[in-house]
Amino acid sequence: MTKFGALTVVGILTSIAPAAVAVDTSHVDVVPAAFTVAADAPNDAQPATPPSRKTESDLIERAFKGEPITLKFDPQSCQTHDFGTVSCDVTYDARYDRKTNQWTVSGPQRSDHAIATYTSANADPKPGYVAIWGMVVTFDNSGNLMHLGEKVGSVQLK
To answer: Are residue 83 and residue 42 in the same domain, yes or no?
Structure first.
């Protein structure tokens, strides 16, 4: 047990991110913002989620869990990049299957504008990565679609 002024810390378990903090709150008027503690909290209270960490409602997490998304490449991106059979300034529907690490994407082909659906499994199996007809791109929670580190379009939940 360690005393910090009026705050008594009963114990701390540490790793790269603290796993648990036990705090005696009986003599505390102000609780440090880094912890979520109530007066009747048990001695295994968990640290609050830091603002920089993503929550379950984020775009990349929801897409990774299989919610459908739409993708659209900016028209100017096609002037500087060759995206193969993918067209710019049109919407593609995509859905991730986490069990098989497959992205199924539907939309118009660049050559004849016919609607096609392809399934690709070559993206890294982690949030923020998507395979569009074999081409791997990334996206962030702000809806920025990125190719080789450059913004080339947008992503949103369908």
So the answer is: no
Q: How far apart are CA 115 and CA 152, in angstroms?
A: 21
**What size, in residues, is the chain?**
158
Nearest-angstrom CA–CA distance, 22 and 7: 11
pLDDT digits (tens, 9 = 90+) for 10-19: 443 333 333 4
C-alpha to C-alpha distance for 73 and 155, rounded to whole angstroms? 9
Q: Between the CA of residue 42 and those of 20, 22, 39, 45, 151, what are the distances in Å? A: 11, 8, 9, 6, 46
Q: What domain range is 89 assigned to? A: 59-157
Mean pLDDT over residues 88-94, rounded?
95
Q: What's residue 57's pLDDT?
A: 57
Count of CB atoms situated within 10 Å of the CB of 14: 9
Question: What's the one-letter identity of residue 12?
Answer: I
- CA 148 – CA 133 distance, rounded (Å): 16
